[in-house]
Amino acid sequence: MNKQMNVTKVGILGFGGLGQAAAQVLTPKQEMKWVAVADQKGYAYQPEGLTVQSCLDSYRQHGSVGYLEPGGTLSTTSIRDLIQTSPVNAYFLALPNLPNTFMADVVQEFINAGWQGVLVDALKRTTAMETVLGMREQLQAAGITYLTGCGATPGLLTAAATVAAQSFAEIHEVKITFGVGIANWEAYRATIREDIAHMPGYTVEQAKAMTDEEVAALLERTNGILELQNMEHADDLMLELAGICPRDRVSVGGVVDTRNADKPLSTNVQVTGRTFEGKIATHTFTLGDETSMAANVCGTALGYLKAGMAFHRQNCYGIMTAAEVMPKFVH
Amino acid sequence: MNKQMNVTKVGILGFGGLGQAAAQVLTPKQEMKWVAVADQKGYAYQPEGLTVQSCLDSYRQHGSVGYLEPGGTLSTTSIRDLIQTSPVNAYFLALPNLPNTFMADVVQEFINAGWQGVLVDALKRTTAMETVLGMREQLQAAGITYLTGCGATPGLLTAAATVAAQSFAEIHEVKITFGVGIANWEAYRATIREDIAHMPGYTVEQAKAMTDEEVAALLERTNGILELQNMEHADDLMLELAGICPRDRVSVGGVVDTRNADKPLSTNVQVTGRTFEGKIATHTFTLGDETSMAANVCGTALGYLKAGMAFHRQNCYGIMTAAEVMPKFVH
Predict the structure, then answer these.
(1) Is the dihedral of CA A316, A319, A325, A329 positive or negative?
(2) Most exposed among A63, A302, B190, B321, judged by the fewest C-beta atoms under 10 Å?
(3) Are residues B286 and B311 in the same domain?
(4) Model-level pTM?
(5) What ipTM goes with this model?
(6) Count: domains in chain A
């Protein structure tokens, strides 16, 4: 759109299902270039741009993007090393929520390194988000613009709920119901464990400690279906911080089918409130079933990354949630 | 929410159906106070806050808010006089779109007066919005933060479309279909003529020149129904400027029932696009039927007015559309 387009150099931390999808979403973009990636065992940086297939080959065949030739480096402190050595404008933190302090620990690495730029996460858990929100002043002082909760839910649906709320004098309920269909759960090992941690009878620690065999056995018992209710999703915190309603009026639940790429129900958010005339009504935002979790999470995350770049150029640092900022469309 | 809340002093320009509804929406707000209003024949200012009923009485019984005692002033240059004499932080421009340069002429009055603050409009017509967008540099120099297109459509639905677009690599179509039910069209005389101007066989000038009797005769022939297609709505311009899609992919149409407060169909926006995996899908945002045009327009306008105040406090001046900014919830 802009002839003198500034190309944003983007890094991805984490190269599981989410990180891989983000790399694919990034590849055709003209105004962003994917130059850096890190997993637990290594990292890769190529100033001219990484290619998804080469990174996938290194990751799948050898166990880390650090084996990439050229550009790969093996390291047990891969994130720290990547931050310190590679010029990157913005990172998408495609990392697990668990433990709840993990994202905050990674953010601390950026601050410690004196890095300046834009960070975007797709955090889901309220507790994890509260931890990163507590770093507001450190982030401001560091010159980092951090946008949190920028996936699908929270993220896309939270932003839609914020817009929807405008018709009402008071919000009575925000109800998010998602349907997820994945053909092969083994591509989303970390995400599935996070989902299981939301089921009755499972703690975060128990879910994280499950072996692949134990996950498979659980899914065998449920015909591959995970039904989740009253999930700890940071939509509640984000909508409360945005002044929409107290967090206990926000609920998140859903159905995950781990054996079918088709969604078991259409993901939607319903915002119910009272208008100034005293009428009770519900606005509904429904996602097309053909949109994958990867499209809804990664597209949104990059849209917020672009919005974050605009704030960063205006020397606006600190941390904001997806409910406070309009995402920008990335070309 | 905030104990040391800054109360924004809000003015309303225009006291037809839209301005009157905005006054009602404003009345219970804690963080905003309605202090000023102008119509064609006069204006009123009360630093402690205006009351809707008193203004309605003056307007209906005497023909102008300028008859209000105390606070009212009769003037044939009511807007200019109000701007120059009254301390107001932000104005909602609840004025007709027609003629297309009318809003721009009013904005020029603010610039000429050396006024600084926030302006919000609910402009509908693309041509009118192009005119005010052309004033960007003047507004920046003047220290005015102007948010345009902040009604329902454009406004609420345009913002929802911008959020919805994030799932897609390319947007194929944005289709807005609105249903409006009004029990008594005579409360929305200007709005109805703007609608008629969108009907086949009517120009803007013809619609504006229609007498009330001619409008009534037209509605008699259509059983009170106005069917509008391919309307000139600035959603197209706003989504193009936000980089979502070329304006010719955006269409706005609707059905207005002038004899029934119930909506003839649920107002909705559908965003169809292609995901990064090549899937075609449609996200849909549907408004609850019980929400009135007044609730959807005025609630949104005030949400953007609050967002505009935050920009103005940060010395961020100029003009932005509702597709570029996340509205804030007003308490």
Answers:
(1) positive
(2) A63
(3) no
(4) 0.92
(5) 0.92
(6) 2
